[in-house]
Amino acid sequence: MKFINKILLAVLAVLVIIQFIQPEKNVNPGPQPNAIFEHYPASDQVQAIVKKACFDCHSNNTNYPWYANVQPIAWWINDHVEDGKRHLNFSEFATYKPKKANHKLEETFEQVEQHEMPLESYTWIHSEARLTAEEQKLLIDWAKSTRASIPVPETSEEH
């Protein structure tokens, strides 16, 4: 029995110690000059949809819940945010070359159409991020029309 107590005490000590090892938060509430809505128009409704369903993982300003301060949950959330931003960052969208921006918008509407975004693991806890059929259509239509507005230069093939 003493062996189990020692193991439990060691686990508790590790859990307490890791609380002091926090990842850097993805919080930048200031101006975002390269943000998508600064360069590509969207209705207030579309902006609200994107902010509630996408921005926590796909922008430079995550709205963290209280449990994001508890380890190891904070590491898991940080990994999701970093991965999301690696795939698409709406706060840096204007820095993308036209071909990449075009492709990212294509991926956006395809993943929304296929119900791959927002992630189910995110909407379990953030029920407000679940998209209705109407919201999905608005988001898809906006992504398609914005994509069509981005001129992609023709690439010439050299032999």
User: How much is the radius of gyration in Å?
Assistant: 20 Å
What is the averaged pLDDT score?
92
- How many helices does DSSP assign? 8
Helix content: 55-70%
The topology string of helices and strands comes to: HHHHHHHH
Model regions low in confidence, pLDDT < 50 over at least 5 residues: none
Summarize the structure in words.
The chain is mostly helical. The protein is elongated and about 70 Å long. The protein has one domain. Helix content is 56%, strand content 0%. It contains eight helices and no strands.
How would you summarize the topology of this molecule?
Elements: H1 2-18, H2 36-39, H3 44-53, H4 55-58, H5 73-87, H6 98-113, H7 120-125, H8 133-149
Helix pairs in contact: 3-8, 6-8
Keywords:
159 residues; 56% helix; 0% strand; elongated
Short structural description:
By secondary structure, the chain is mainly alpha-helical. It has helices at 2-18, 36-39, 44-53, 55-58, 73-87, 98-113, 120-125, 133-149.
